[in-house]
Design a protein that fits this description.
alpha/beta, Rossmann fold, 2 domains, 9 helices, about 20% strand, elongated
Length: about 290
């Protein structure tokens, strides 16, 4: 088995599972990393087996419990089978796209706990914006997504559309440590070779005049240009998630990168309501870096 950090792809049969596979394959091929597909079988909130003693007569309770135990065992067996089918299908899909190093994992228990346990093995995590349980909520995000972002300190690509090969990227930049980490990634990663980058800062005109964001962007753009990146810089005004989403849409951006922390007043929002709002508003995948 390949011991290099992997592109970890979470699949559960939801709407974007195929797109998750495709984006994972794109990353894996670009950075020469193996892919690991993960399917987690989580405990249902309402188990099929419950203690009926006292609710009805003891004899009937034992009979029903035996039946419910059988139902629970069959349900688990079917979930395992379903997961294995999905994992094999994912492997076949990316094999056809030229990925050679692929491993499959099926775990019982919390997805978040599993990801934390596997964190040291992860190079990039690829997840859909919603899981199977929230597939019908086309305007929201999965209830575990924010918890995953909070829990991991690895790059996380959130997929919200069928795969298209990214041709332009946007880096939301504010000069923070996380933003500079993203800047370094864009400058050095083969994933972004020959890909134009829009370096964008959302602020107010007053703030921009006070602390010189134009100079900040100029310095950052020079770092990218020195690595052969075609850079466009922009300082834009407005509510952060609206301004970034509007800029992305109007300039045909295929992928947005942003740090998960900031030295500005936005810091406390970036892992709270802002993340949810940005994910809900953007129409293109979002790569988050901690």
């Amino acid at each position: 088995m390949n011991n290099n950090p992997c592109v970890l792809s979470c699949i559960d049969g939801a709407t974007f599972s195929e797109a998750v596979c495709d984006y994972a394959a794109w990353i894996a091929k670009a950075v020469s990393a193996p892919i690991t597909f993960l399917h987690a079988i989580e405990q249902l909130n309402t188990p099929a087996v419950s203690d009926l003693t006292g609710a009805i007569g003891l004899g009937a309770s034992e009979e029903l419990l035996d039946e419910l135990i059988s139902v629970e065992q069959n349900r688990t067996r079917l979930l395992i089978k379903k997961g294995n089918i999905m994992l094999e299908s994912a492997k076949e899909r990316v094999t056809q796209q030229g990925v050679e190093s692929i491993s499959l994992r099926q775990r019982h228990g919390s997805l978040i706990e599993t990801l934390v346990d596997m964190e040291e093995q992860i190079r990039v995590l690829v997840v859909g914006i919603r899981g199977e349980q929230h597939a019908e909520d086309t305007s929201g995000i999965g209830n575990q997504l924010e918890a995953i972002i909070r829990s991991l300190h690895k790059p996380i690509l959130v997929v919200n559309k069928p795969f298209t090969l990214p041709k332009t990227i946007m880096l939301a930049y504010d000069g923070s440590d996380a933003a500079n980490k993203a800047l370094k990634m864009v400058a050095s990663s083969p994933l972004f070779t020959n890909m134009p980058c829009h370096l964008v800062r959302v602020t107010t005109k007053v703030t921009a005049e006070k602390i010189g964001y134009d100079s900040l962007l100029t310095d950052a753009s020079r770092r990218l240009a020195a690595n052969g990146i075609d850079v466009t810089t922009a300082v834009i005004d407005g509510k952060i998630e609206d301004a970034l989403a509007d800029y992305q849409a109007s300039h045909g951006i295929d992928l947005t990168l942003m740090g998960a922390f900031s030295h500005t007043k936005v810091r406390h929002l970036l892992l709270g309501s802002f993340t949810a709002k940005m994910l809900a508003k953007t129409q293109q995948p979002l790569l988050l870096l901690r």
